[in-house]
């Protein structure tokens, strides 16, 4: 059987911002290939500042790439207002903080109906809002129409934000840290909701998170990002049970259920305007620091030889000289 084409694809994507006072540009996204298929949930994981939110904004058409291109439904993304308006009906954003993304002066009804009004919806607005709220788990929906955000719990506010995305019947949602601001008791409910939306409506999702535990619970596939580039990707069970990149191993090591001592990475991620030569992780790499890379004969490559950009496909891939030596050794 032939694999269906991806719903959303990025090829050779770069996003750079001008440097301060005429300095070197900041390479926030520095060569990314990524595919998301219909009905697939992909988790984009990494530390704060690694470029994952900028990548998500580029995929939404909110930031124009410096190089590379984005395709949706087999067609390239165009940066005309008409094209982007139609595109954003099919691809919706769910923000991290429901309190910040909901206008405190607007009722739940108006918050959910806003997208319909922007896009000139010609159908029954009341019915569409009620259906979106019901899909998001707020039932009976009419009970919530005249409520204001301050009258809702944190979980209910996040469901209203999700309903505002669902009301336009998108094919893909981009959820940026969708449960980061919620209590632990509510997080599971929202994750279960996202899984149900995929199962019942075929909704695809890119979930942006720093939490590998969240990725484990919700994603089909995970892409681990470091300093503007995806360094490991593959099916979530494969990557998270047998991680090959030292950075992925370090992120996993701090989860409570992971056996062994946590890996403490030294220092902060480098400035994206001064990306180091060789492997971009080598200045913090525990494998290089321990001498394991030297024993494998790849320490020089780690410090001076760049790695190829990983492809956007669904197979397991890793950008690491040491991991490559483990396979061939």
From TrEMBL:
Which molecular function GO terms apply here?
ATP binding
Q: What keyword terms does UniProt attach to this protein?
A: ATP-binding, Nucleotide-binding, Transport
One Pfam family cited in the UniProt record for this chain: oligo_HPY
Q: Which domain of life is it from?
A: Bacteria
Q: Which residues form the ABC transporter domain?
A: 10-252
Keyword Transport assigned: yes
Query: Could you tell me which NCBIfam families the record lists for this protein?
Result: oligo_HPY
Q: Which family does it belong to?
A: Belongs to the ABC transporter superfamily.
Protein name per UniProt: ABC transporter ATP-binding protein
Q: Which organism is it from?
A: Streptomyces gibsoniae
